[in-house]
Every structure is written in structure tokens, then in C-alpha cells.
Amino acid sequence: MKNLVTVVFIAIIFFTGCQTSKDSIVVFHTKYGDMKAILYEETPKHKANFIKLVESGKYDSTIFHRVIEDFMIQGGDVNLKPNIQEEDRVDYNIDAEINDQFWHVKGALAAARQGDQINPNKRSSGSQFYIVQGQKMEGPELDQLAEGRIYQQKQAKVRELLAMKKYAHLRNKVIEMQKNQDLEGLQSFMEEADSLIAKEFGKLEVYEFSAEQKADYETIGGAPHLDGEYTVFGRVVEGLNVIDSIAAVRKGRGDKPVEDIYLTVDLEEMSQKKITEKYGYEYSNEEK
Fold this sequence. Notes:
Elements: H1 2-20, E1 22-30, E2 33-39, H2 44-55, E3 62-68, E4 72-75, E5 93-94, E6 108-111, E7 124-125, E8 129-132, H3 139-162, H4 168-179, H5 183-192, H6 194-201, H7 211-219, E9 232-238, H8 240-247, E10 262-271, H9 272-279
Antiparallel strand pairs: 1-2, 1-10, 2-9, 3-4, 3-10, 4-8, 5-7, 6-8, 6-9
């Protein structure tokens, strides 16, 4: 009898746990309609920060201040709100949580940030985000883009090499070729630099898009050149047409919409099980 009671008690606890495994769906309200987004548990710092800002009402009455058609819509700059009080400002950054399993497909929700020159660790803005619109790309275009990223990586390593004291003679040689516009010589130098790069830094990282990434970019579209550079922490799962409507508005200086597009943001509670069934996002825990 005692064992039976124990089993029943454990079953009740398990059932209750399953029932209470819920998560938050983000709802963006705009004059063009609503967008719903899920937040990834694999980017916990960004998820917790975003939820905190939504719950405190920080995003309400912010605008989409930068909009580029076929690319993305950017908003969430709390500090642009008129008459903002000092204590309401968001001036902190968040450590990058770049995850290879999330890429910049259409609808991706990602954190804006400052450029690499002043932000080499790719830390995210505390409040600004962007939602990808992008465009469709074919396989050969994606392959070319991947090759370009490898070449950019190589250029960065060459700059590091030429900054080393022991390679001053090579630096002077490159400077001379640049002065003389010796493109053939510069190209030859870049081709021969592989051995020096391998010696000083090891082999360059091979970059390529996965079959799944290619399928998404070919059928759904997105902004693949941003992959690995910014933290993607969620995805719009309803209201993709709203992205298109906002992206198509008339813009002025700095890609700012001529007419302000305000948004309010709130949260909608939903069970993890329903989120998985409805939107296909799998949680790492077993309680759904």
C-alpha cells in the first residue's frame, strides 16, 4: 500500500510538472499588424534580458528607426524615446551568444551591436534588435558568399602578420606594390601567404553553409552574410507579412521611416508542448 501511494505521489508530481512547463511568446504590436516570436533557450542571457525589458514596458512607444528593404527592420532603441529619464536608459551590453544552429533566415530575431573595430567580442546592444526580411539566394550565390568570408578571414590574418616586427620587410614590400598599383604582385602575395598564416595562426577556419541553411535561404530567404556575426536569439513565427509591410515604407535619411512606426510589446504564455507542436521549436528538457 505504501509503495502504491509513493507511485501515485510521484505520478502527480510528474504530471504537475508537465502541466507547468510554460514559456513566453513575444507579441509585437504595430499599425501594420502583430508579429509573434519565440525566444531560444540556447541564448539565455538575451532571452532573460528581452523578457525583462518587455515586462518593464521599456519597449512600449519605441519605433523601428532603421528599415532596409530586402534586408531587415531594426528597432528597440529605448534611449530614443522622447523625454526619457536617466534611470530608464539602457546603456549596457550583453555578452555574445552566437550559436551555429540559428541563422539569419527570414523572421530571425537578432541583437544589434556596434562594429568589430570597437566591439571585437561582438557584444550585443542591451535593447536594440532587428528582424530579418532578407531575400532568397541560390546555391552558387551562397557558395560564393562562403568563399568571400574565408577570404576576409585570410585578409585579417595577413594584416596581423604584416603588423609583426619580424615581417617588416614583407610589410614594406606590400606597401611598395600598393603604391605602384601592382595588382598581380599583391594577388601573388596573398596566394603565397597561406604558409605563413598556417605557421603563425594555424589553418584558416573553413566556412560553408550547411544543407539545411542552403535550403532555408533558397526557399525562405534571409541575410546569410550576417551568420556567425550577430546573436540570433529568437524567430518570428507569425506575422511575417508585417515585416514586408514595414520594410516597404518610405524612408528618409539614415534609412529611418518618414512616418514613425511605433510598437508595443507584450508576452503571451504558452506551454512548451504547444510551442513545439505549433512552431516546431524543440526544448532541451523533457517536460513539455
